[in-house]
Structures are given as C-alpha cells and as structure tokens.
Amino acid sequence: MEDRSAKYRAFYAQLICAAAKTTDPRIEQAFSTVRREPFAGPGPWSISVGGHPYVVTPDDDPAFLYQNTLLALDPARGLNIGMPGAHAYWLSGCGVREGETVIQIGAGSGYYTALLAELTGPSGRVHAYEIDEGLAALARENLKDIPHVELEDRSGIASDLPGADVIYVCAGAAQPATEWLDALRPGGRLVFPLAPEGMLGGMLMITRPDEGTVWPAKFLSRAQFIGCAGLQDADAGRRLAEAFAKGWESVQSLRRGGAPDETCWFAGEGWWLSTAAAPVPTDSIKPHADLTQA
C-alpha cells in the first residue's frame, strides 16, 4: 500500500501545482512527500469540490485522498482539510524558505502544518495553534515525529507569539489581529483570509517593511474559511462584502493608523487598505480569482 500511496502522491503533487499555476519545485516536493492518510483519519471519507455537497467515497482506498478536493474532518460543522490547489497557490505566494520561523493559526488535524514543516526544513520552526481540543489532539498525534513543529491547543491571538517570518492563517477574520502584525519580523509575510464567517472574502498577504506604517499588501485570491474565534464583526463583514463587490485586485498597501484618504478600499479600526502602493512593493504575483474554498 505504501508503494501505491507514493505513486498517488507523485501524481497528486503535479496535479496540485498545475491547479495552483506554480512551478516551484519545493512546493511540489512537499505535497509529494507528506502522506494525507494520517491527517484524514479512517475512511470512507466525505469530499467536496467548490462548495458542492459532500460525496462519500465508496471505500478507504487512499487514491480518493489524492485529488484537488475539500476533505471533511467534521461534515456536520463544515470543517475540512482545505483545497490543496488553493493552499499550494497561497504557499507559493508567501514564499516560505528553509530555516524560517512560521506561525500557523488553525492547524486542524495538522496536514498543512506538516507541509509548512517540509518547506522550512529541520533548520526552521513551525509554531501551530489550534483552539479546537479534538482537532488539536489529532494534530499533536499526527505531528509528533516532526521535531521542529510545536503545537499549542489554544488561540493564536495572543501577545506572547514568537517572532515569525511567515504567519499562515487558516481561519477567516474580519481584520488582521494586531498580535499577528506585531509578531512579524521585518520582511515577514502575513497571509490570512480577510473573510468573516460565512463570507466569500479574499486571501490577503501583508509584508512588514523595515520601518514605517505603510505595509505592502495584496490579495492573492478570493477565499472562504471557517471563522477565526475573536475576529468576527457583523458590520465589518457587511462592509467587506460591499468592498469585494466593487473589486479587490487594486489593493496595494495596508496603512496602520492615520486618516483614510481617497485611495481607501476598506477601513477597519486603526487600519485600512489602500489602492496606493507602499514605498517598497511586494514581489509580483498575479491574483488567482478562482481559488476560493479552504
């Protein structure tokens, strides 16, 4: 079965990178290396594509796991291992490098935590947070043999977060947590779904500059996630829906403080997104409009 799983993974990694339009060999290698079986749990499994109803696989053949689909962890709550092609695109966008320190918010059963660990390599460090006790227990068991991963079963919105080169958030929020912005090192990238519970928003990447309050920012794609506890706001969600309806590709920077001006795309409390460029723009990556489900 292991030989079959390796064959499935090699094909799956190519399929995922094609869906993500990435040619990064490190992304393909990570998806080819990490087995999905431990993170999915025993089959049969419930899978879904693009917001359609779940379909139950006929048996526990691992071939069903190696597709570009949502894989349910808890169908009743809509908790999934997110769409691999979307995550491959976002991971390519934030460019996790060997030796970097990564914070992951919303580890689930640990599948994307393991992929992040592959990308950082043993010289790096992954600090993963999962507030759901049941999922955290699964993730801890699944990740126990990766020494450079540390899992904590608590909220990832806290003042004691370690300094990080990348913060990768797998839960939708109405705003970037101040604690995430403060934990970023200069040059660090925060990638999170600006998408409150139940709303199709966008995966926003923010890069911390060496100095100043104007940070490069851009949407990588549209995105929808389970909500991040503590970062929900009904009024912000309504206003965000209106902003996305008018377009989202023009966002170029995050402003911390100051009065929003005519370039404001959306304003939160103490922060706003602008269509004006930051002094040091981010590397060019074309937004991918059809990546949504995570």
UniProtKB/TrEMBL annotation:
<dbReference type="GO" id="GO:0032259">
    <property type="term" value="P:methylation"/>
</dbReference>
<keyword id="KW-0949">S-adenosyl-L-methionine</keyword>
<dbReference type="InterPro" id="IPR029063">
    <property type="entry name" value="SAM-dependent_MTases_sf"/>
</dbReference>
<keyword id="KW-0963">Cytoplasm</keyword>
<keyword id="KW-0489">Methyltransferase</keyword>
<dbReference type="GO" id="GO:0008168">
    <property type="term" value="F:methyltransferase activity"/>
</dbReference>
<dbReference type="InterPro" id="IPR000682">
    <property type="entry name" value="PCMT"/>
</dbReference>
<dbReference type="Pfam" id="PF01135">
    <property type="entry name" value="PCMT"/>
</dbReference>
<comment type="similarity">
    <text>Belongs to the methyltransferase superfamily. L-isoaspartyl/D-aspartyl protein methyltransferase family.</text>
</comment>
<protein>
    <recommendedName>
        <fullName>Protein-L-isoaspartate O-methyltransferase</fullName>
        <ecNumber>2.1.1.77</ecNumber>
    </recommendedName>
</protein>
<keyword id="KW-0808">Transferase</keyword>
